[in-house]
Amino acid sequence: MDGLVDVLLLLAAFTLVVRSNSERDEVWALCLRVLAVTAVFAVITNVRGLPISLLLLALALWLPSASRFEKLPPSDP
């Protein structure tokens, strides 16, 4: 049951981030992102959420760095 709550919180955080990307109002988008970060923080600070925390850390380390995209030449439209 505890794992289900963690998964639901992560799904809610993902949904909030996706929704914040489509919002025109910047204040509301920021509010949605803060709620998403709070949901993820609730999962990773929990003792039972250690496996999920490790998976999220592995995902964050797997993501490409920003410097890789800065070195790409600009594309012509």
Helix-strand string: HHHH
Care to count the β-strands? 0
Residue windows where pLDDT falls under 50 for at least 5 positions: none
**Oligomer state of the chains in this structure:** single chain
Q: In what range is the share of β-strand residues?
A: under 5%
Give the rounded overall mean pLDDT.
Answer: 80
Total helical segments: 4
How would you explain this protein's 3D organization?
The chain is flat. It starts with a helix and ends in a 7-residue tail after the last helix. It is mainly alpha-helical and 77 residues long. The longest helix has 20 residues, at 2-21. α1 packs antiparallel against α2. It is built from four helices and no strands. The protein has one domain. The protein has helices spanning 2-21, 26-44, 50-62, 66-70.
